[in-house]
Design brief:
The chain has ten helices and seven strands. The chain is of the alpha/beta class.
């Protein structure tokens, strides 16, 4: 006998409720950001990509999202270091895709070095891109979300937003700050149909993490193989890297009605790292 889905079950299908909405995902030409953008596109959302990369490669990525999921995909070259360009990216999404329903602040950079030799310019850049760019993007996107009575903001923080590691002063400071910003904006928007949450991934084998491996090896005076085994995966009891697909799936869930009462949270996806 064929079973008919009840309304609550049908409502949990992201394709039913998210199709046609628009998401802006910063830092989404590779790594975690691209995984999130593809997951949201898979749920029927149009996406604005953003990030670095060779122009031909970026265009291939954009076209691939459209071809794979049958949605609109656009690209913004906005530099997250420049507030005016962050705002322009949000405005471009409104013009090109009709709205900004979901904002994923994912763009980030890293530098690994002892505090006494940590370059001030690196500190400024990491705070600007990993923290301040999220502020500027939210500031630009929230007014429209309030007017339409619906919005989802997802800030990609880190396990380093919950705990610290040596030689990462700027990154840890920025990610802790991002969690505070998440909680504050969640409280400000709670009565407007908007949720604001942070995902705190452990180590994902992205280009950013791959770049950290030789830097960490130099800072600690150990081999790159030891960095992977004794520093990165040692922190995660599962001894496995988190995947971009896992982060993307959680991002889709946070956009659904099932997650409407989740706001101001920091969700660890780090193989048990912060349980220790």
């Amino acid at each position: 006998m064929q079973r008919t889905l009840t309304a609550p079950q049908a409502g949990l299908d992201p394709a039913n409720e998210l199709a046609g909405k628009t998401a802006v995902v910063t830092g989404s030409t590779s790594g975690i950001g691209l995984g999130i953008a593809r997951a949201l596109a898979g749920a029927g959302m149009n996406v604005m990509l953003n990030g670095l990369g060779d122009a031909a490669a970026v265009e291939a990525t954009r076209a691939g999202v459209e071809a794979d999921y049958g949605v609109k995909a656009r690209y913004s070259s906005a530099d997250m270091f420049k507030p005016n360009e962050v705002v322009r990216m949000i405005e471009d999404a409104r013009v090109l895709l009709g709205s900004v329903d979901v904002l994923v602040n994912n763009a980030g950079i890293q530098h690994v070095e002892a505090i006494e030799t940590f370059p001030p310019a690196k500190w400024d850049a990491i705070i600007a891109i990993n923290l301040s760019s999220a502020f500027h993007a939210m500031r630009a996107a929230v007014p429209d979300m309030k007017r339409q009575g619906w919005g989802r903001i997802i800030n990609i923080a880190s396990a380093h937003g919950l705990v610290a590691s040596p030689f990462k002063s700027a990154y840890v400071a920025a990610k802790h700050g991002l969690l505070g910003l998440t909680k504050t904006v969640a409280l400000e928007t709670a009565e407007h149909g908007i949720t604001v949450n942070a995902i705190c991934p452990g180590y994902v084998l992205t280009p950013l993490v791959q770049k950290q491996i030789p830097e960490t090896a130099k800072a600690r005076g150990i081999s790159e193989e030891q960095v992977i085994k004794d520093v990165l995966l040692h922190a995660q009891p599962t001894r496995e890297f988190v995947t971009t697909e896992q982060i993307g799936t959680l991002s889709v869930f946070l956009c659904t009605r099932a997650a409407a009462s989740m706001t101001g949270t920091a969700l660890p996806v780090e193989g048990g790292w912060t349980a220790q």
